[in-house]
Amino acid sequence: MDLEAENFVMMSPCSSQATGAIEGLSIFMFSYLCHMNCFSIFGEMRKPSARRMTLHTACSMALCCIAYIVAGFFGYADFGDEVTDTVLVFYDVRRDVLMAIAYAGIVFKLCVGFALCMQPARDCCYYIIGWDVATIPAWKNCLFCGVMALCALLLGLFIPVLNTVFGLLGSFCGGTLGFCLPALYRMYCGNWSLGTVGIVNYVCTYLLLMAGVVAVVFGTGASLYGVVR
């Protein structure tokens, strides 16, 4: 009985192994939030078309995937299970010149990435408020963007664990915006049936929706459980 109880605890959804796996899934889901820049990129392309957009997206995602795999592999090879949040804290930038240069590159990347992420967020807020980004005064635009940047800075200072941010954003926002809503849009945009879209498109759309529901429900729950644990 003791062995069965121990096995039950280890396989329980609230066990550390299960929640850790679900939190890892939420972090992976965070990577699907990059689609919010698609409209801006498409509008700035030299010759915009669906084919060119698909090709550029596939190439950029492949490069990012390779970079993430390489960084994750060598980080795990260096420190193994000691890494629980971010591998950057294990490097000494004061003594290692190469890591200091890498840190400078990371800071530059974060600044550029923050601007790319804040632009569609700002446009969404302007749309809700009723402002036009093309006609709004420059001082009002700078003030609004400055307030958004200040809020992001305060959240970054007072949220100690980076995985918590990635987990919550990945599970809730990534599951909703990257999985559930695209599948629902495809289903309700019209002319949706097994005969019109084909078996592959039909099944994959439902799989996309179910994956989003699983990510939102279990991923958000696991992330919140990790915060209060």
From TrEMBL:
It is found in: Membrane. The keyword DNA-binding does not apply. The keyword Transmembrane applies. The chain crosses the membrane at residues 20-42, 54-77, 97-117, 138-159, 165-185, 206-228. One of its GO terms (molecular function) is L-amino acid transmembrane transporter activity. Signal peptide: none annotated. Residues 15-222 form the Amino acid transporter transmembrane domain. One of its GO terms (cellular component) is membrane. Keywords: Membrane, Transmembrane, Transmembrane helix. Coiled coil: none annotated. InterPro entries: AA_transpt_TM. It is a multi-pass membrane protein. This is Arginine permease.
